[in-house]
Design brief:
136 residues, mainly alpha, 3-stranded antiparallel β-sheet, 5 helices, membrane
């Protein structure tokens, strides 16, 4: 999954490499090596095609590397930062309770309950103290 900013980065990189390819062809078409270095004025297909292939190869390597890095960055951004002591969540430089986080990020109301494992753990002592037989 690519974000809008990720696509923008890849587009800019692609445009940069396309400009390099266009400049490679323009240099050969206007015979810049002949004008600057006195080389023969002949259009050299081999040189321009070779340079184009090299630039395309580098572009492909850079493109797929950036895609992989953006994907990994997206994965890392999905982690929730949770305080080890108070269990508040780090969100955009602020520490929020879980309720505040869910309300701000997901617009979801929260309620409280107790899971069966915690109920068994925490109410087992209470049952023993009151001597209430467990339900079966």
């Amino acid at each position: 999954m690519q974000t809008k900013s990720g696509r923008s980065i890849l587009l800019k990189v692609t445009i940069g490499f396309l400009l390099m390819i266009v400049l490679t062809w323009v240099v050969e078409v206007v015979r810049l090596p002949h004008l600057l270095y006195g080389e023969d004025a002949e259009f050299r297909w081999g040189r321009v095609v070779f340079r184009t292939i090299v630039v395309l190869g580098i572009w492909a390597w850079v493109h797929f590397t950036i895609r992989r890095l953006l994907r990994r960055l997206h994965e890392l951004e999905e982690f929730l930062l949770v305080c080890s002591w108070c269990r508040r969540l780090g969100n955009q430089g602020r520490w929020q309770t879980m309720e505040e986080f869910f309300d701000s990020r997901l617009a979801t109301e929260t309620s409280h309950g107790i899971c069966p494992d915690c109920a068994g753990k925490h109410f087992a002592g209470l049952r023993a103290a009151v001597r209430v037989p467990p339900k079966e």
